[in-house]
Structures
1.
Amino acid sequence: MEHRLALVGVEPSSIDAIVVTHHHGDHSKSASKASKKWNARLYSNLETCIRMGLEPISEVRTFEGLERLHISENLSLLPVSVPHDDADNVAIIASNGEGKRAAIVTDLGEPTIELMKHLSGCEHISIEANYDLNRLISSPYPPSLKKRITGRGGHLSNVQAADILAEVLHPNLKSIVLCHLSEKNNAPHLAESEVLHQIGDNFQGVLSISRQEGPDFSNLLGQSDLEQIKSTI
Ligand SMILES: [Zn+2]
Ligand SMILES: [Zn+2]
């Protein structure tokens, strides 16, 4: 984690809060350790707190869905529940209090009306494009796993991510980061081409792909300021 933070120039000691979206290991591992080491307050909803084996109140500041968390004077976070497996997962909408908002949306089988409402108007959207449907279908994964991934509690495909982006697209959408790409069932060029196919003509911002192994980006469209994107996620 410290290595990943160093890649985007963030000092661990400067972190005030760690928000865990759900208990799955790729989102919660080391969160408790990091919060103690860096003296950063840990936030999650009650289900996630319990599933991480932590104590509410003493170890985790728990929140409800749609409860606005005031992290600092100019940063609040809105957790929005999304369907994902047996987890009580949330997307996060960050706001600076002056009308600028950014979203981080991963690990959901499909969007909800509530989520679409909150994504509309965001200037920056980081969203999962987990799998390419053809690659998943032809993969050696067992049928039960394929069904889980494509189901309501699974992950967003490239097409689903592109559909969501096309629906919430507005002239002030400055950047999109496609993230949580499956290494086996997706590839950056597949995710990119699907999204461009849907929004290319109307999107004036920067589209980037976040690699699985850390916050390293392929910047595939619009060669404007990559640093600007890195600083917003
Ligand atoms: Zn998950
Ligand atoms: Zn995940």
2.
Amino acid sequence: MHHTTPQAELTRRLRAAGCVFAEDEARLLSETARDAAELARMTARRIAGHPLEHVLGWAEFAGLRIAVDPGVFVPRRRTEFLVRCAAAGAPGPADAVLVDLCCGTGAVGAALLAALGGRGELHAADLDPAAVRCARRNLPVPGDHVHRGDLFAALPDRLRGRIDVLTANVPYVPTADIPFLPPEARDHEPRPALDGGPDGLALLRRVAAAAPDWLAPGGTLLTETSSRQAAAAARILADAGLETAVSTDPELSATVLTGRRPRPR
Ligand SMILES: C[S@@+](CC[C@H](N)C(=O)[O-])C[C@H]1O[C@@H](n2cnc3c(N)ncnc32)[C@H](O)[C@@H]1O
């Protein structure tokens, strides 16, 4: 007679539903569920196509466990490169001002603060109230440092001209490409978290136009893009008067643009 363990049976069901990393997912689901009933509910949601991170309620990002609420953009491993670039360029003083626009879960800000050993005054902001709630859970900063609103309009005016490190993982998928995204993103992540307008660069244009006014002299804007969009995106930053560079990490297939506000001579 052939016996299967519950874990092997769970793996088989996930694989049949099209989960590529079925064995890992089975383990994560079993470890996260508090009892059999919860495991059954979680498995059903996963099989119905919800992103694993929404089902688990968390994602691993830069070695941190980030809470991911349903309907909030799932932080991608690729974005760890944005954090690495931001940490490498961050100034030394403990009172450096760090801002994460389009913060989603707050993963970028949380990982940046961790990489800097907790140094710096971090603010995060997003337009979506669900993202703001989620970021408040993830960020070890006062609740009033997590703001809701449209790009820079969310920030307190006292930060104008004072931001040393400005991360903004803006949505950058061209509208016409959205139907071709994996269903997990297309069907379960909010459209405004993905849609970057006709050429995918609409939000970046708005961020770049306002960034020189909000950055401190010598402060840097960092943003993720795709390799296909990198040249056009770099031109947008340069046209805004920022000293622009493109960095890539082939292993994560990540492209990051940095734009520095020049210091006055
Ligand atoms: C690609 S997700 C990035 C989330 C997070 N930074 C990350 O890397 O996981 C983009 C985020 O931008 C937010 N967003 C879209 N339009 C916005 C706007 N006009 N102002 C502020 N946030 C916006 C979305 O709600 C979403 O959370």
